[in-house]
Every structure is written in structure tokens, then in C-alpha cells.
Amino acid sequence: MRSAMALARSAKRRVLAIWSSGASRYSVLALLVPLVVAGLLAGSPGGEKASEPAVAPAPSLAKATALSSSWFCAGATAGAGSPAAGAVVLDNSAPGQVAATVQLVAQSGTAKTFTVVVPGRSTRTVVEQLARRPWVGAVVTFYGGMAVAAQEVTTSVGTVSQPCASSASGRWYFPFGATFRNADEYVSLLNPYPLDAIADLSFTTDQGQENPAAFQGVVVPAHGLAVVDLRSYLSRRRYIALTVSTRGGQIVAFETEVVSAVPAGTPFLGAKGAPDPALPAAAVDLLLGAPSTALSWWWPGGGDGPGLNETYVLYDPGPQAARLSLSLVPQGDTVAASTGGSVQLAVAPYGVVQVTTNGQPWALPGTPYAAYLQSLNGVPIVAERTVTGSVPSAERGRAALLGETMAATSWLLTPGPREMAGVPVPPRAAPTAHAKRGAGHTSEKRKVANAAYAKRGAAPTDHSARAIPTARAKRGAAPTARRKLRAAQGAHVAHHAKGTYTVAVKRPVLRPPQTWVRVLDPGGAPAVVKVEPVEAAKTLPVLVFTVSARQCYGLVLPAGLAGVGLRVSSSQPVLVEEDSYASPGALGINLAPAVPLAALTTPGSGL
Amino acid sequence: VARGFGSSRGALVAAVLYAVVPVPYNALAQGRWAGLVAYGAAPWVLGGLARLGGQAPFLKVRWSSAWARVALYGLALAVVAAFVPGFFVLVPLLGLALWAGSLLAGKGLGGTRFLYAALAAVAVAWVALLPWSAHILGSWRALTGAVLGPAQRLGVSQVLRLQTGPFGGGALGWAVLVAAGLPLALSRSWRLEWAVRLWFVALVCMALIWVGSRGWLPLPVPEVVLAPAGAALALAGGVGGAALEDDLRGYRFGWHQLAPAVGALAVLASAMPLFSWSRGGQWDQPVEGAESAYSFPESGGYYRVLWVANQGSLPMAPEGALGDLAFGTSFEGLPRASQLWGQTGTSQAFVLGRDLSWARQGETTALGRLLAPFAVRYVVVASNATTGPVVAALDAQTDLYQVGANPAYHVFQNADWAPWLWVSASARPNLERTLGASSQSWAGAFWLQQLDLSGVQPLVAGQRAGGPGAVAEGVVEGSPYGELRASLVVPSGGTLYMASSFGAWELDVDGRSVPARRAFGWASLWSLPAGRYNVAVKPAGTLGRHLVDVFMLAVWVAALWALLGGAGARLRKGFSRAARELAGNSPQATVSPLASPWDEEGLS
Q: Are strands B325-331 and A147-155 parallel, antiparallel or unpaired?
């Protein structure tokens, strides 16, 4: 026993002796050396810096729990009989009622303020009426979330509706505008803040870069509006790209384009020896500018056909040339399958390129598709898709839509123009004159005019730009059924399900007005999409469909769902737009972006 | 402190190393006042604990004799903790690290004294700072500061080189570690024990800040935690100096003889970057401070300025946190020097933080109205990468607009602000309903954002209240920092509002106290009857606060008298007795590598 204790004592002494002679030293070194090695290997956490916040699009919906949300509308004239009569549509998708303060503003400042209560899941329309004020804007403050305001503009040549802006910016970009004998272009600058803002407008036109002195230092009064008539200093411009920048303050910019009826005998654009030509297609268009440039832009809907000209306008507002790739994604196919066409483009600094898909070897005539534009050299740009409908197409008019930059799982579609939804509306001020104009043209004249207008956009008009068709374009890849349908003049083809094609529009068969919902799933997983009406009062259908990964899908809304506010929810982030077409032969095309609600993500470059 | 290790060369090395660690320069560059205070205090805090621990070569004093020393240490700690409350947490952690280091060095039982001494000293400091300390201990965030965000994330190499800002990077940043690492390779006896303890302290602090910088643990600013690490490394360098004098001769000829050259080179190399850091004398600080943010006006009514910045860039002690940002309010323009002291989180701070959070999440576009009850007229946000989302959120508010031209600050003016002290007609639409609702709740805020307070009538000292449509008329005198008096004519009655905590101020009308009502759940509101009378608004309960102040002053004086007077003699007696007890352990004996205290415990 004693010897055992002695042994234990001896062992303890030995352990302590070993410890004292350096074990503690080595234990600390054992901790320290790996740390130093790790530190040397890891270096500084360069990638751990705070990332830049994603820039939300100008219209985006506030959450249901929000205390308040503000919307800024402009681009309309005051009064029911005015040239571009405005109304603000307040769409409340929340279940409970929302109070809204509507401030109507004119060039002199706030003119009228009133409160509107919008019941849950319903819509209210406020006519923008101000005595002796030509132009009007509106600042709408909802005391709650899930509500959106849309600006509606009604003219003698149609009605358009666009979501208002939910945020102001120090910069706004408009890729395309034009001024002709019958085409007026107005830029409305709305200042929702209590301090005056000063804006400078710089242009790129077919005559180069232009900065008219009258458009520099434009004072936008606090809670007020400034409207610039581009034709006053930039007349007869085939295209006008515009950058609005402020000196400190933040504003909201809308562009209103009105192409009025043409007097008989007036030469159209493209006619030889016409010093002051006119545009052939009467139309009205309203566009909220892009508050920022981006490296990629998506359009969930796209398509062209005889008489239906589609042009992508690419504007590089910066000092570096941009190299771009424009890809078309046919409905039901993926880029991976290479059935869509693509083209590479170069845009000079501060330059504009217009790419018309009609007649291009890489295009997909008669086939609905989505479009994806990507900057290949990291130079951000702004891009817009314009659609012009004239004979022989069933569609009439012109509309423009900026590309979308963000995907989301929840979207709101504001109510579109009522006449495009087949909802009876009182006759407008000058529908007869328009009908007469349409009847007065011979079909031959119309063909010539349309060809001339189409030619304008058929190739890049900027001499510094060039279109480079790529080997990816495969025209022969379209299925036989689609090819047959394409042969039918004026057909508007929709792909409803695999292998099933429906002729949505086919001359001379009359169809009612149509509203399309286009959805693009840019991700790698299929999205289950639900489209339901915001309004609770009516018994309306709910649509559920699946969009395959990296595919687009479009469907015509059934009666009842067109012209009302819609909520689109998806299991995966998607992009959504709404296209409305008036009855065949009637004026009116409206392309409207959906307003995202939640889970905004930057789509990957999988497309 | 380093002289306690018995080597003047070691003390010199420690002093040089502590001077060249990048902690204070990074604190200076980032405007972190707490980091500078911590850097100044860390050697004394660590040295005090080392002495109280009583491990060789320091004398071991019995607890019965050491209480005065603990009390003195606690009072000194109170002074530091008044500026850097994080030391309430940090000192026990240092005690724990020293104990754990002792365990590693084979001195576990003796090492518990470090922990006990640290806890006792913190208790003394906490009592000495009452009643403020009682309040601050209630909130972990107030104690430690805001959680560090992704912008302050530090990598392993940065933490090891104590690089919390622009200074300390590069290869020469490792030289401090090399110099401090020498005693681990070279020393013996108590010097090895201390090298292990000090390295353990450094590693614990580094590990804490590595975790804290990822937001996993609420910690004070990095420099506060890394200052003790820097002190520990410098002291380890000092121990290395002592080891070169005493331990090197015990080794046979070999690589150990290279240690002096390596150590000297490391100390020299560690000092080199200091010359480049000090070039220009700016220490990477911005050219202008908060005083140049904006020329705040002195008219229109009393108002507050809400400051939002990184914790280090805030020109005051934070009142609350907004993610990894901090905020605070100042009265009538720039903050006062007294606001650099730790402020406590109040219910107002909670509401302000929540309002800012709503704005940042895009859930309101009427932040100005939400801030109006606080009399916030300006919101100042320091410009940097982390404040970008807040600036964007404030830009989206329709009642805020940017003023000022200093690019280092975004100054937003609140178009819907209301003054700190105002009167209003009671019959104002929505006023009574909204005043009655608590703005601390979502519903209260919902009603508040629909209430326009911009038309209320301010009361300002030195100005005559009145004018067309005025609720009250008369002359106001006094100061908002003391008492405001007025002789008022209120034709049809009204409501008097003050944007200060409920109960903090009281109103006398013709000498009689008028009970206050709670407005917005936290502010003070009084009903003014119709008529002509004298009113006085003054801080409430000042007598009680003054009594507490006097009592605490008396406690401090008594404690210092007891420690430095009668008790001091007992302390000295205790030291003499301890010295006699350790007569066998003369300093000469303890510094010998072959005759250490361990040797006396029977190892040799």
C-alpha cells in the first residue's frame, strides 16, 4: 500500500516536473501557432464587407403591416375633357379598408387635398380635376400597406394606365421618345418633397447629344410639378433618349407621348421629300422612367407579327460603350435548348440602339416569347420594349414598357384601362374623327406607311451601333403547328399547354378586347403561379398554372378578370407583366409592369 | 506595471510594444472614445489584477489585509467604467482568463485569487457608481454597446494583429506577436507562468472580438476588448525581457542564444509602422467633425437633433441601437460634452429606434410625423457604407428633406416637426385621440402619422408668445435647461405639451401644481384652463436626485478617507506582515530560474 502511494506521489511529481519544464509552454504554442497559420492563410476578410443593398424598382408595394406608403403620379392633364385627362386609380389589396390622402399638385404647388377611404380588396378612382391648370400630378399617401396607385390617362386616341412611383430619385432615364408633326412628347417632373428641386435634362437624339438651355435648371417647386414639352426645342426628332438628373433633390419623372390623328394627305415618316412627316399610328403612351441603370433587363412578354412591330430600344447613358446580348425565350422552350434567337449588340457611350425584331433572322415571328437583355462588359444601361400595331395587325396603337430587373414571389397588377377589358365606358370626346381617319386611308397607303414606320426601327438608327446576329438563332426550330399558324396573316399565337396552340387573334375574326398576363420564371425550379382578383365583392375565377424553370408563359384573362386589380403569387421568384389590347381595329395597347410586393431577388443569369 | 517583473529592460520592451500596438490609433481614426479610454486603462486594470492575484513575483497578501487594496482598485475601476461601462463585464473575464492561464501553467488553486479579486473590484465599482450603475446593468446592450455589424467583421489575421481599423495591417503587424511570443520559447519558472497567463488573456480577448465582430455576441467596440489583449502582449514582451536576463544563461549554446537578436529585431520592426501612421498627424480622422455637420438654427422653438451613425462615429454615447448602428439625440443643435457619458435606454429611445426601423424597412413614408412628438427637427446621418440604407430610407420620407452641404453628413430637416414645448387648442382635430394613444404601439403610431403637429404654437424663452390665432399670449422667460416661466393669457383654454419623459417635469399655475397627463404614452401634457395666470415649468423631483448625488458624494469621500487614512495604515501593516511571511522568498531568490517558488513547493 505504502509503495503504491509512494509510486503515485512519484508519478505526480514527474507529471508536475514535466509540466513545469515546458508542457504549459507547448500548450499555449499549440493554440497560437494554428491561429497564426489560419490568419496568414485567411488574410483579411475582403469578401465580408457589407454588400450593397439591392435597388428596388420605382413602383413597389409596401407590406401589409406598413404604417403608410406613398405613391407619386404624373403625366396627365387636369379635367375630363382635357387632352390627356388623368385619373388616379387607388387599388387596395388588403382585406381591411385603407384611408388615403390624395394631394393634387399643379405647376404652382399643391392645389387640392382630400381624403379617400378605399374599402378592403376594392378600387376607387379619383378624377384629377383642377380648374385652369393644364397639367396635374398626385401624391397619394395610403395609411396602411398593400395598396397601390395607378395613373390613368385618357385621350381621343386611347387610354393607358401605369402604376405610379413609390419612390423618388435623383435620376430618371427614358430610352425612347419622338417628336413629329402629330407626335408630342411631354416630360412631367413631380416633386413630392417640401423643398424645391432643380432638374437638368440631357438628350441623345438622332442629331446627337443635345442639352437645350431651356431644359437646364428646371425648377420643380416643392410639392409641385414641372412639365417640359420636348417638341418646343427638339422638334422632328426620330428618337429622343433622355436623362433627368437633379441637383440635390429627388423627383419623379413620367413621359407622356401623344400621337394624334393625322390630317388627310399628310406624308408619313419615311416618305420621300417630306420635311415634316407624321407618324402613321395614332396612340397615347405613358411611361414612368427608370430610376437607375442595370446590367440586365427582362420582359416576360414579347412578340411580333405582320403589322405588329416590336422594337427594343437600348440606351447607354454612361461614358463607356456597352456590349449587350438580347435573347428571346420562346414560350415552352428554354435558352438551354437554343430554340430562341439571340443577337449581340454594341451601344456607344451616351448612344441609343433600336432593334426591331420584325424580319430579323434571329427573331421568332408569330411566337410569343420573353426577352432577356444582358450587359456583357459590365456597363449598365436602360432598355425599353415598344410595340406598334397597325394594319394588317388587329392591334392599333403604340405602347412601351421598360424592362424589369427584379423577380419576386408576390405581385400586384393594377386595373388596366376599362375599354380594353370589354367594360362599357362612355364615348370619348373624338372617337368619330378617329374612325373616319381610319376609314379614309386606302389599304395600299396603310401598307406603305406601315412599312416606312417599320423600316425606321428595323435596323439600328445610331450609326455607332451595329447588330450582330449570332449562330444561336434557329428559325427552323419552331414546331410545325406553330409554323402553320404563323402563316396565317395577323395571327396572335398563344401557347397554353404543351403542344396546344390557340389562335388568340386572327383577322378577320373579331375578338373581344384581350388582357394577357405574362409570367417568366428565371430560376432553376418550376413556379406554381396563382392569379386571383383583388376585389372580394365579385365571384371571379382564380387561375393556377405552372411555369417551367427558365420558361415564360402567357395567358388571356377570362372575362371578369380583365380590367380589375389582380394579385399574382408564385412559389418561386418570377417576373410578371400585363398586356392589354383593345378590340381589333380599335385603338389601344397598354403594357403595364406588375408591382412587386415581397421577396425581391435579382434573377440569376441562367437565361 | 512591467517593472514588477524585476527587469528594467523588460519594462522598456513592454512600454515600446504597448506604444506601437495599433489599438489606440484605430480608435482615434474611427472616433471611438471608449477605445482610447480602454487603451489608457488596460495596463493598470491588468496590472492591478496581477498584483491582487499574489502570484510570484508579486507578494501574496492575505485577504484580510488586501480588502483596502481591492477597494481602491474597485474605485479606480469605477472611474474607468463610468466612461466605458463594458469594463463591468471585461474585468471579470480578465480574472477568469488569468485563472484559466494559471491552470494551464499548473497554478490552478492560487489562480482563483485573480477571479475573486476581479469580482470584488467590480462589485465595489458598481456600488460606487450607483444609482447610474443599477440602471445600466439592467440592459446588456447599454452595458456593452450595439452589436457589431458586418462592416466591423474582423478576420483572424486582423484580430491577431489587433487591426481594428486602417492601422496595423501588413507583415510588420506580426512583429508584436513575435516579440511577445519569445518568453513562451525561452522563459522558465514564474516567468513562464506569467507568459502563459498573459497569452491566455490575449487569446481570450481576441477570441471574444472575433466572435463579437460577427454579431454573435454583443460586445463593446473592438478596441475596448483588444486593449487588454494589447496590454497582455506588451507585458508578455516585458516578461520576455526578464527571461533574457535570467533564463538565457541557463541554456546551453544553441538556438536560444538567437533570441535576443530576434526579440530586438521584432521590437524594432513592430515600431516601424508607427512612423508611417503618424505621418501628417491626421491619424486617418475626417478633416471635420460633427460640429461642421450643419449650422443649426436658434429660432422657431426648442428642438432636438437625432444623430444616427456607427457606434464609434456617433458624437455622443448611444441612446439606442438600430441594427449595427447607434443613435442619440441632442437638444438645440450639437450634443453637449456630458452626453459623451453613458446614456441609458429609455422608453423614448425604444420608440425612436422602432420608428427608424420602420422607415428602414420601408413601412412608413411619414417618419417626420412619427418624430414630431420628440421635437426632432433634424436627423443627421454620418456618411459611410453602413449608413447607406438608412439614408435611402430617410430619402423616401415625404416629410423629410435634405439640407446642408457637408458630404460627411446627411442632414434631413423634418417638415412636420413640432417644438419641444408647445400649446395648442384642445379642439384640434384628431389631437386628443392621438395624444391619448401610445405611440409605443403600432396603433398609436398609425394615428400619430395622420396627425399634423406643424401648426402648434411654440413657447420659447425670451420671445413673446402670441400673434394672430394664437392659443396663448404672454412673455416666456427662463431656460429649458432650468425653469421656464410665463405670464399667459389663454382665451379659450388649451393644451400644453412637453417632449420630455412623463413625470420628469412639473407645471405650476399660479403657484399650484397641476397634474400632468401622459401623451403618446411617454410625454407630458397639461390642460390649460381659459384665463390669465402665471405658469412655471420646471424639472420634477430634483430634490430627490440631489439628495442621492450628495449621498453618493459622501460615500465616495468616506471611502477615500477610510482607505487613505486609518485603513491605509492597516494596509501598510498587512503588507509588512506579508513581506515577513515571504522573507524566505526574497526577490533575488524568486528571479532565479533554478530557485523559483515552484522549487520550494517540492519540485526540486
A: unpaired
Strands (E) in A466-556, as ranges, are: 466-469, 492-497, 500-505, 514-521, 527-533, 543-547, 551-556
pLDDT in tens, A25-68: 677 777 777 777 776 666 555 433 433 344 455 677 777 778 99
Residues of B in contact with A140 (CB under 8 A): none
Q: How far apart are CA B293 and CA A93, in angstroms?
A: 43
Q: Are A406 and A576 in contact (CB under 8 A)?
A: no
Q: Distance between CA A397 and CA A407 in Å, rounded?
A: 29
DSSP-derived secondary structure letter, B315: S
Q: Pseudo-torsion of CA A34, A37, A41, A44, nearest 10°?
A: 90
Q: B285 near B28, Cβ under 8 Å?
A: yes
DSSP string, A446-464: HHHHHHHHHHHHHS--STT
Query: From the list B153, B196, B449, which residue is nearest A48 (CB)?
Result: B153
Q: Judge: A32–B181 Cβ closer than 8 Å, yes or no.
A: yes
SS3 content of chain A, % helix, strand, coil (to 5): 15, 45, 40
Give the dihedral sign, CA B542/B543/B544/B547.
positive
Enumerate the residues of chain B whose CB falls inside 8 A of the CB of residue A66.
Answer: 358, 362-364
What is the count of residue pairs from A and B with beta carbons less than 8 Å apart?
142
Q: Rounded to a whole number, what is the distance in Å from the CA of A148 to chain B's nearest CA?
A: 14
Q: What is the distance in angstroms between the Cα of A407 and the nearest Cα belonging to chain B?
A: 18
Question: Strand, helix or coil at A235?
Answer: coil
C-alpha torsion angle, residues B326, B331, B336, B342 (rounded to 10): -40
State the CB neighbour count (10 A cutoff) for residue A7: 10
C-alpha to C-alpha distance for B155 and B164, rounded to whole angstroms: 10
CB-based contact A293:A383 (threshold 8 Å): no
With cell 429609455, the residue in question is B346
A30 lies within 8 A of chain B by CB? no
Of A32, A63, A249, the CB nearest to B199: A32
* C-alpha–C-alpha distance, residues B183 and B259, integer Å: 9
Alpha-carbon span A96 to A504, nearest angstrom = 38
Tell me A403's DSSP state. Answer: P
Sort out which chain B residues have CB atoms less than 8 A from A44's CB and list them: 155, 157-158, 169
Kindly state the helix (H) or strand (E) to which residue A92 belongs, with its residue range.
Answer: strand A85-92
Distance CA B478, CA B490 (A): 20
Q: What is the pLDDT of residues B441-497, one digit of tens each?
A: 888 888 888 888 877 888 888 877 777 767 788 888 888 888 888 888 888 888 899
The cell numbers describing A479, all together, are: 414546331
- pTM strictly above 0.90: no
Segment (H or E) for A177: none
**Of residues A402, A186, A394, the one with CA closest to residue A294:** A402
How many C-beta atoms surround the C-beta of residue B514 within 10 A? 16
**Backbone phi, psi, residue A79, to 5°:** 105, 145
DSSP A416-438: --GGGGT------SSHHHHHHHH
Helices (H), A459-576: 480-487
Q: What is the pLDDT of residue A49?
A: 41
Model ipTM over 0.90:
no
Euclidean distance between the first and the last CA atom of chain A, given in angstroms as a whole number = 83
Cell of A93: 389589396
